[in-house]
Amino acid sequence: MAILSLNNICFSYGKTPVLKDLSYEFEAGKMYCIMGRSGAGKTTLLSILSGLASPTSGDIFYEDKNIKKINKYRFRSKYIGVIFQSFNLITKFTALENVVLSMEIAGVRKVRKKQRALELLQSVGLDEEEANRRVLKLSGGQQQRVAIARALSYEPKIILADEPTGNLDGDTQREIMAIFRSLAEQGKCVILVSHSPEVAEMCDVRYELKKIK
Prior knowledge:
By secondary structure, the protein is an alpha/beta fold. The protein has one domain (2-208): Rossmann fold (3-Layer(aba) Sandwich). It has helices at residues 42-49, 72-79, 95-106, 113-123, 128-131, 140-152, 170-185, 197-202; strands at 2-13, 16-22, 25-27, 31-35, 57-62, 65-66, 80-83, 158-162, 189-193, 205-208. A hairpin with a 2-residue loop joins strand 1 and strand 2. The protein starts with a strand and ends in a 5-residue tail after the last strand.
């Protein structure tokens, strides 16, 4: 059964159509790759999936409930974890502080937030010393791991990632993809937007967007 489904989704910027009649299904425990050339609407679709943008027409269902009936803030802060291409970390904070802040914004009710944040960072391959470094002192691959830990901090069922390996070397890309695979095996629905054939090959299902002429 799909945890997230799209029913005839369309999106336009003014009179310019970007997405047309998309009907996709996403299941827990699987990795998905959304592909397409530049301008095909990949990032727009990601924004719609995350609740940051609303489709011009069509419906989105989360666990068979139309998200129009779900508070948008609750949807974004409880059910969906988003990993941005540019990481969007607070650079003056440490890795640990970034994850704790995410938990506080989401209203996570855990007494030991720092301990939980450290456990999440360790789960994606960062040790305690790295967790206590300012983000600017970390490599691109390490920052991506922080972004993943932050997205996991409020235990969402769906993980969305925009070009999560776009700025990484081959070895680091494989390590990050192994983290996503592990999350899918733990029951998460993992949806990646990527132009990389290598990333697509590692996913269970691939959806390709076509640019509307």
